[in-house]
Amino acid sequence: MVMSPAGLRNKNDFAGKDQQLLPQISYSVYLLGLMVTVVTGSTDGIGKAYALELARRGVNVVLISRTQKKLDEVAAEIESKFPVKTKTIAADFSKGRPVFDIIEQELKDIPVGILVNNVGRQYTYPMYLGEVPEHELWDILNINIGATTMMTRLILPQMQKQKRGAIVNVSSGSELQPLPLMTVYAASKVFVKSFSDALRYEYQRDGIIIQHLSPLFVNTKMNAFSHRLQQTSLFVPDATTYARNAINTLGKANTTTGYWAHGLQYFLTMIPPVWIRTYIGGLMNEIFRRDYFKTMPKE
Ligand SMILES: NC(=O)c1ccc[n+]([C@@H]2O[C@H](COP(=O)([O-])OP(=O)(O)OC[C@H]3O[C@@H](n4cnc5c(N)ncnc54)[C@H](OP(=O)(O)O)[C@@H]3O)[C@@H](O)[C@H]2O)c1
């Protein structure tokens, strides 16, 4: 059953019902799954794949994204495939502060076990800072930094009270060095890494797992600027493959790429010094920028 846009038919529907469904995940994550998982940015890409994969493992999910129609479709897909419950919350994180009052109200009394701070915004294509439209920069700040911070702040008190919970912060391999032509996006992901690592110190004593997840390229619409990244391969997995692997690391690794082939790439990437990596990152983005100009329709 799909919950109405306004929310759950009965908030208690979520609590503690699906014990028989869950033995596929580690025990600590299983216990969290008995509560509810909240996934931001869950109507496409990694977030949608995360929601579907968690539901496949028997976990109830709250889907938060900006478009109600897409939320309804994902909720319907989940509930038609798996015996779990969903709730949808339409919220545009680029709007900043006001959306969190709505989310707080909607999540009131729902026992959240896992929060996946997945929502993220990238440049439309690799650009020099002066070329990036101002609204895109505000979106990146509000979504990548603002939503991650404020969703965490909103959920933490109840996890602290429950003395358990897990927060997955989706960063990016772009955090590994400065990344020219994606300068602000990469810097926002450095924030996510630092935020996660410091938060772990603050809250792990309350039984809260803080996972910093740092994927490299995944074949999603975020990378539509280059045809090269729209072809699934070992190193550019589809979102489902990525999510399946990443979810297996929850409760086992505090900081991870989430996917073994990305782990290999991470290892090789970290061998040269930062200035070389920065230079190579810039060259790579010049190529993606040319791809965009070659294949994308002119505005
Ligand atoms: N794809 C990669 O190669 C890659 C690599 C490293 C890290 N990441 C990170 O992984 C996360 C997910 O990326 P993705 O590639 O799956 O992205 P995606 O395919 O573009 O999906 C983004 C999701 O976020 C939602 N969203 C976008 N703007 C929103 C807003 N203002 N308010 C609420 N929801 C919004 C989208 O909703 P709509 O469906 O309405 O658009 C969609 O559901 C991001 O944090 C990204 O930085 C991705």
TrEMBL record:
<keyword id="KW-0521">NADP</keyword>
<dbReference type="GO" id="GO:0005739">
    <property type="term" value="C:mitochondrion"/>
</dbReference>
<dbReference type="InterPro" id="IPR036291">
    <property type="entry name" value="NAD(P)-bd_dom_sf"/>
</dbReference>
<keyword id="KW-0496">Mitochondrion</keyword>
<dbReference type="InterPro" id="IPR052149">
    <property type="entry name" value="17-beta-HSD3-like"/>
</dbReference>
<dbReference type="InterPro" id="IPR020904">
    <property type="entry name" value="Sc_DH/Rdtase_CS"/>
</dbReference>
<keyword id="KW-0560">Oxidoreductase</keyword>
<dbReference type="GO" id="GO:0016491">
    <property type="term" value="F:oxidoreductase activity"/>
</dbReference>
<protein>
    <recommendedName>
        <fullName>Inactive hydroxysteroid dehydrogenase-like protein 1</fullName>
    </recommendedName>
</protein>
<dbReference type="InterPro" id="IPR002347">
    <property type="entry name" value="SDR_fam"/>
</dbReference>
<dbReference type="Pfam" id="PF00106">
    <property type="entry name" value="adh_short"/>
</dbReference>
<comment type="similarity">
    <text>Belongs to the short-chain dehydrogenases/reductases (SDR) family. 17-beta-HSD 3 subfamily.</text>
</comment>
